[in-house]
Structures are given as C-alpha cells and as structure tokens.
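We emphasize that the prediction below concerns an isolated chain of 226 residues; any contacts that depend on oligomerization or on bound cofactors are therefore not represented. The input was used exactly as deposited, without trimming of termini.
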Amino acid sequence: MNQTVLKVTGVFHTGLKEFDDTVFRIPLKAALTLLQTDRVESMVLGLASVDDFTTVADFIQSRHPELEAIPFSVLDKVYYQHSVDWLDAQFNVIQIIIVTIVLLGIFNTVSTGILERKQEIGTLRANGESRYEVMRLLGLEGLALGVLGAALGILLVVGLDATVLAHGILMPPAPGITRQFLVMLEITPLMAARTAVLGIGAALLGTMVAGLRVTRMGIAEALRAS
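Result of the prediction step, given as a token string:
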C-alpha cells in the first residue's frame, strides 16, 4: 500500500453505522495510485428502478461481452435480499388484513342498503317484475356504486399523494440505522386497477348476495317488512 495526502471535501451519511464508520470515497486516479494498478475490477451503476436491470444487463453483454453484470441482490444476498424478503412478507400480511377489512366494510354497507329496501323490492315484484329482472337491476346498481366508489377513491389517493404526501412520510430510524428516512408513495396503474377491481367486486358481490336473499322472500312478506 502507498500513502498520499488528500483533502476532505465533504461528509456523507447512509444511516448504517457500520458502513459510515469504515467507508470513504476518493477519486479514481488516487485509488489507482494507492493500489499501484491501472485496472478497475468493478463498477456500480445506479438505476432508476430495479426493473431496469435486465435491460441494462442485456445492453452490457451485447456491447461488452467481456464484462459481467450482477444485480445488487445477488452481491449482497445475505443482508439485502433477506431484508427485502422479510419486508415483503410483513407488508403482504398487513396488506391482506387491510384489504379484508375494507372489502368486508364495502360488502356490509352495500348488503345492508339492499336489505333495508325490502318493501321497494316487494313493490317491484308486485308490479310484475320477475326475480331475474330485479336481480339485474340490483346488479347494475351495485356495479355503478362500485365503479363510482373506486373512481372517487383513486382520485382521492392521487390528490393526497400530489399535495399532502408529496414530500413523503418521515419514518423513525429502523433497527441498525441511525438516521430518519422518508417513505415515498408510488401509485402504479397496476395497483390502481387491482384496487378498483377488488372494490367493484366487493360491491357487486354484496349487492347480489343481499338481492338473492330478498328476492327469495314472498311478495307479501317483503311488503310487510320494515
């Protein structure tokens, strides 16, 4: 090893104490001089998204077949990949709980509204509407409510993300991290579509289940219902 005199131009923090205590950055020319070499063994590329790695790796292999592209998840599998897998499992459990509560809430609200309209449905049956026609009418109503609710929900979330949450949510330091960090919300078309389908499906299912229960009642019983 050689030695040289360098001037400190700045201090950076990553939040990981072990990393911050041991890692420093110097110009490439100074590093080559200290290590007495003119070769670079590895380069780190920062991508906009992890999904871009395949495209970048294919480009590197086509232009420079002598180079090898390895994703960070493979290089640091013990810490990074295990942390990602653990967080994914944790978030999936939380997501299932939240989605279940929301779907049950939509199902209960819609079905309760149908069950409270027994007299109205009984009147339709008394006027000659068949069970199929009543169910079709209720199904269209449930579908319209689901679409309207999903559209309003997505617009509300997009509005909040663009205004109140535009700068992210400040989170306390996690285990092993010494600094607070911001969590940014990313709304993707796939996520919005999946949420809309779940909401519309819950509204439609709640309407159909409650509608079947009411239409199976006798006309006189439905008219007397309160």
